[in-house]
Amino acid sequence: MCQVINFKAHGSTAVLNERYGSNWLYIGRANSHAGLPASPLANPYRPAQFGGAAGATLPAYRQWLWQRIQAGDPVVLAALRAINDETVLVCWCKPGPCHGDVVSAAADWLKSQ
User: Fold this and answer.
1) Where are the domains of the chain?
2) What is the mean pLDDT of residues 13-17?
3) CA separation (Å) from 11 to 33, 43, 85, 100, 103?
4) 8-state DSSP, 84
5) Beta strands of the chain (E only): which ranges?
């Protein structure tokens, strides 16, 4: 499994590039302030839709991602296949419950198939 980190702990893409080179992958929604485009692996669900509790979206996200994999979504599959053990997944919610853990597990599973 790969590492999942919080963007805020690094503050910019320049710092991520300096620290991780080309081995980091942003997996969140678009963030124009940080200059980050939306990832095809971004969680389409917002915590407010599920009562606001940390991690409440994860069951829905897991199901959404599995449906994308089963449907053969070429964009999602390509994004998952680009992940390896050296990839650092970057999101906003770590160290709390994070869809990055679901993404990492899905990438590992896909490689085993």
Assistant:
1) 3-46+56-112
2) 97
3) 11, 21, 23, 18, 22
4) -
5) 3-6, 24-26, 88-91
